[in-house]
């Protein structure tokens, strides 16, 4: 078994029969851990934002209300570029990853608490567990866990000699087990103490983040480069053998699966978008057996991960500069919002009132009502390609000018730098 040590890099363990025995004991230990964690979880202060797109179902749905009027409360300028969304801890701490490998922790008013330097560039939103501990991966295959104070718990190195890039946020179970997809076409299950539980081979590059359903099952999507098919896998949390694999033919080899899957447990559906140079496709799958519920074509490609409202409406950004609201049962269009920009790269977010927030390629963030009407918009100096985050009446947005903007209800400033 391969495991990490606290504050050090992972090392190779004993092989053979002893490895199998230890792996079995680790899985049995997780069974008792589930029971103890389940009893403890009600006493923990869980964050409203745990990971990319808010929760581990990747719904993009947040329990807080967004700002009712535009205005920047403060802005944080990072040393390097930022392509990922932030995540907000239960105490209001803002965690932000940069492509220079720095992970920042900011106070609710924008002051820096600490920073952690990873081995390589960070392109993903960090994830949080029930104790506020952080999990994230870098472009050289290092997977990290930090304490809330920024100190290293452990780090684990993915297999040597392969393309180990981690471009999707990890999914972390309530028991602290992490599921990480990497560009060596593998899905990894990492134990709470940084050891390898299992890994599963995928037939393509998983650029998005894995998702979890309410039972802890794991879903990951990729493009099978051998035959240009969308491949979606379902795994139980304890086995590298898929429960099912859905393979859907796409149009041609230029297709890409960039987005993460989103799960709607009430309707028992999974939604995923794909991208080509000329068109896009939203596919809905049944969680139980992986059968296709519907396929919805859009005029241009989709880089956006779907967001799911509380009424089951699915929101998808498109490379025609529009946000589409689709019926979650059959894919029918409910409304279409035009941003006025050439593209919508980023994923939308939804607040507790059903209002949507999305950025566009002109650097504008749009607030959109449940019925598809504009509530307000704010414009920055660079593209907004990440998914906004809603927390405590604020909207957190990163931009290609290496900045995090925090939009609040009572602010009246435009996009400008906070002076400190």
Provide a descriptive summary of the structure in words:
This protein is 6% helix and 36% strand. The chain starts with 16 loop residues before the first helix and ends in a 13-residue tail after the last strand. It has a single domain (17-407), classed as 7 Propeller (Methylamine Dehydrogenase, Chain H). It is built from 1 helix and 32 strands. A 4-stranded antiparallel β-sheet has the order 1-32-31-30, with no helix packed on it. A 4-stranded antiparallel β-sheet has the order 2-3-4-5, with no helix packed on it. The protein has a 4-stranded antiparallel β-sheet with strand order 6-7-8-9, with no helix packed on it.
SSE inventory with pairings:
Blueprint: H1 17-40, E1 72-77, E2 87-88, E3 94-97, E4 102-106, E5 112-117, E6 127-128, E7 134-137, E8 142-146, E9 152-157, E10 171-172, E11 178-182, E12 186-190, E13 196-201, E14 211-212, E15 218-224, E16 229-235, E17 244-249, E18 262-264, E19 269-275, E20 280-286, E21 292-298, E22 307-308, E23 314-317, E24 322-326, E25 333-338, E26 349-350, E27 356-359, E28 364-368, E29 374-379, E30 389-391, E31 394-399, E32 403-407
Antiparallel strand pairs: 1-32, 2-3, 3-4, 4-5, 6-7, 7-8, 8-9, 10-11, 11-12, 12-13, 14-15, 15-16, 16-17, 18-19, 19-20, 20-21, 22-23, 23-24, 24-25, 26-27, 27-28, 28-29, 30-31, 31-32
Question: What spatial order of strands do you see in the largest sheet?
Answer: 1-32-31-30
Largest sheet, described in full? 4 strands, antiparallel
- Total DSSP E strands: 32
- The residue ranges in which pLDDT falls below 50 over 5 or more consecutive positions are 1-45, 415-420
Second CATH tier, the architecture:
7 Propeller
Q: What gyration radius follows from the Cα positions, in whole Å?
A: 20 Å
CATH class: Mainly Beta
């Amino acid at each position: 078994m391969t495991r990490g040590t606290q504050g050090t890099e992972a090392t190779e363990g004993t092989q053979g029969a002893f490895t199998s025995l230890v792996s079995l004991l680790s899985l049995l230990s997780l069974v008792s851990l589930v029971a103890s964690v389940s009893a403890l979880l009600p006493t923990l202060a869980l964050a409203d934002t745990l990971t990319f797109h808010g929760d581990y179902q990747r719904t993009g749905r947040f329990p807080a209300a967004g700002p009712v009027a535009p205005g920047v409360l403060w802005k944080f300028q990072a040393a390097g570029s930022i392509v990922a969304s932030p995540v907000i801890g239960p105490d209001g701490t803002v965690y932000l990853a940069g492509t220079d490998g720095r992970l920042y922790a900011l106070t609710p008013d924008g002051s820096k608490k600490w920073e952690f330097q990873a081995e390589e560039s960070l392109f993903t939103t960090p994830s949080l567990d029930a104790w506020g501990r952080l999990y994230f991966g870098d472009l050289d295959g290092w997977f990290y866990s930090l304490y809330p104070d920024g100190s290293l718990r452990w780090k684990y190195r993915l297999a040597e000699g392969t393309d180990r890039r981690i471009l999707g946020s990890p999914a972390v179970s309530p028991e602290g087990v992490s599921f990480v997809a990497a560009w060596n076409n593998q899905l990894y299950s990492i134990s709470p103490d940084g050891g390898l539980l299992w890994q599963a081979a995928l037939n393509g590059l998983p650029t998005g983040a894995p998702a979890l359903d309410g039972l802890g099952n794991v879903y990951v999507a990729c493009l099978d480069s051998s035959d240009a098919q969308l491949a979606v896998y379902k795994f139980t949390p304890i086995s590298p053998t898929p429960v099912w694999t859905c393979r859907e033919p796409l149009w041609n080899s230029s297709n890409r699966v960039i987005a993460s899957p989103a799960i709607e447990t009430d309707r028992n559906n999974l939604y995923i978008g794909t991208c080509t140079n000329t068109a896009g496709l939203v596919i809905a799958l049944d969680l139980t057996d992986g059968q296709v519920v519907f396929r919805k074509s859009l005029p241009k490609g989709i880089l956006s991960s779907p967001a799911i409202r509380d009424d089951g409406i699915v929101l998808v950004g498109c490379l025609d500069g529009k946000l589409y609201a689709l019926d979650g049962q059959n894919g029918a269009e409910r409304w279409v919002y035009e941003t006025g920009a050439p593209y919508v790269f980023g994923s939308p977010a939804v607040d507790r009132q059903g209002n949507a927030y999305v950025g566009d390629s002109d650097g504008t963030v749009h607030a959109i009502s449940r019925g598809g009407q504009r509530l307000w918009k704010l414009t920055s100096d660079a593209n907004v390609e990440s998914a906004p985050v809603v927390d405590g009446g604020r909207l957190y947005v990163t931009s290609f000018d290496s900045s995090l903007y925090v939009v609040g209800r009572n602010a009246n400033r435009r996009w400008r730098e906070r002076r400190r």
